[in-house]
Amino acid sequence: MNLLPPDSPASRNPAPRERRADNRPPDFIEPAGPIVPGVASVTQLITKLSEYLTPAELKKVKEAYRFSDEMHLGQVRKSGEPYISHPIAVAEICAEWKLDAQAIMAALLHDVIEDQDVKKDELIERFGAQVANLVDGLSKLEKIEFQSQLEAQAENFRKMLLAMASDVRVILIKLADRLHNMRTLGFMIPAKKRRIAGETMEVYVPIAHRLGLNNIYRELQDLSFSHLYPVRYQTLSKAIKSARGNRREVVKKILEAVKNQLEASGLKAEVHGREKTLYGIYKKMRNKHLSFSQVLDVYGFRVVVDSVPNCYVALGTLHALYKPMPGKFKDYIAIGKINGYQSLHTTLIGPYGTPVEFQIRTQDMHRTAESGVAAHWLYKTGESNMSDLQQRTHAWLQSLLDIQQQTGDSAEFLEHVKVDLFPDSVYVFTPKSKIIALPRGATALDFAYSIHTGIGDHTVGVKINHEEQPLRTELHNGDIVEIITQPDSRPSPTWLTFVRTGKARSAIRHHLRLVDVNESAELGLELLTQALAVRNIKPDLPASVVERLLAESSANSMEEVYADVGIGKRMPTLVARQIFGLMEGDPDLLPSSKPLPASDIAPVTIYGSEGVAVQLAPCCMPIPGDQITGQLRRDQALVVHTCDCQTAKRLLAKEPDRWIAVKWGDDLNRRFDCRIRLLINNEKGILARVAAEIGESDANITYVGMDEDDENMMTQLRFTIQIADRVHLAQLIRNLRRVAGVNRVERERT
User: Fold this and answer.
1) Is the pLDDT of residue 642 over 90?
2) 388, 399, 451, 734: which has the highest count of C-beta atoms within 10 A?
């Protein structure tokens, strides 16, 4: 992922920085360069700003414009336009949100630090500390030596997000900047278009959605789609244009019928037809494997009324007009989305059997739906005056700071944040009826960490809807969750295998990193020794190589390097390659013999008690006796899979360099989790007989579930049990098959 905007210094033609004597009158705002027709106009910008800024604020904005114009004199964009047209366009987008004067000034100045070597102190002197801080938050880091392009990009992104955590205007200006760059991306070469569009889809689209900026969210999606898949975009665009004519009469008929029905009910409402976005249609076709002709709900309708009660009245009126589709109603007014969005959604069967989606909302909800947090962010009010949306956004921004404090690595920080940007959410309740929003797939343990890191660290149990459940239980909309804690409880390494949120994962890893440094260093030494053996290099490195390795790795000692390898922060193969490169500079240090063949390299030994350094994959749950293989992951160190695990095979095909040979150790003095599935006759006492047999076979039950098998008219029992090894499991399965009423027993894997 690359965080360079399309107007990076490499893509511009900057002139040497020069200062001009400014003898112009204070209100002079014409550009210093030539005026090009069709580009952003400062006159239009000032006209927009005059609608809500004071004369004193306008004067400051004009000063910022003049300074930016001077600094960018001689620069042109790839399109040939004067570069100043870009900051003006960014400021215009911010003006549409009615951002304050400081934000508009920062938008006009957002590239002067990065491109023209203007110092932050100079901006503080001219425009004040707040404007300078905004511009600094928008500027990429100065030329610092990073180990890789990816690390530099991740660090730049972390800087921007942390600046946003202290002032949300940073990201609003950045999104406006990215939107204008995407609108003008057509002048870039194809490879650069794809890179920038991919980055936009991966990072900026989710941020826009998370902040409720739906207009930008939709436009960035479509623009990214058009550059990532230009042929698909053009084909779909033509199909929609063709379909418009065929469906125009249907849309007109529905629009008239709805307006008449609402008027007859005495409701004052605005009704608008809307076409779904190209990317939205494409995603539905791809996810559901549909052709364009099978996507019937290309059009939707929006009903805007004057009050919340009338939203529900309008819903009943529409349901009286057309039949609703079962299961296609969602009430986002009673429980709004995490980004503040509120509306009633219902899908009705319109004329000719066509499904039609309706959104019903008030004017205030409509403003928030289109502009999200930018619609009413108040920069000078305290928390007590913040709206519900502002409070939720503030809480999310604070969680970024929590993750930053627990994470030392910029790439790790970025991965945690991207997880939390996942748009789908579930809404659950505390015992005191407070609503908590979590990403879809979040578990009870994620809920505990969302309340407070201290609660998560000391969690021992959970009650969901007043019944005790495992911590790994996935939460669903409407669940009531109560966390049980004990002061002496501590996080377990196995928690990393099922938590979903970035906050929970970073907090668990932070704790484990502190207590398991020695274990991680031991594993890291073993992994690095194995990687060095491939090149026939002994782990006892010469002092000169160690010194240069520590300098390049920004580490204080080899133990720190080993620990980083053990927790997955550094790949052993890459460290070994780095060491080999350092030795190449001195032929006397290079090994004289040839590299060892892979078959001669000793596998890493797994005991199952390594703590955070080694995780047993939850998909296949390997147990001693299984043939196993190891995957090196950035966020979970070494993950052990069975060799026949389907998930492992898919991951191996994608990243073969991240896999190493592993084997079970001897004298394993612990139990291992394993899943089994039984097909039984649903008769009295069967569960008790099965549970008793498991206990008599010296196995422990940690989870039990039941579901119907409609095809066989029987019941399936699913157990997670703790056993010693494959021999123990085989004996248990033989014993269970002898239990009356048990028809089949097998080991279960996902």
Assistant:
1) yes
2) 399
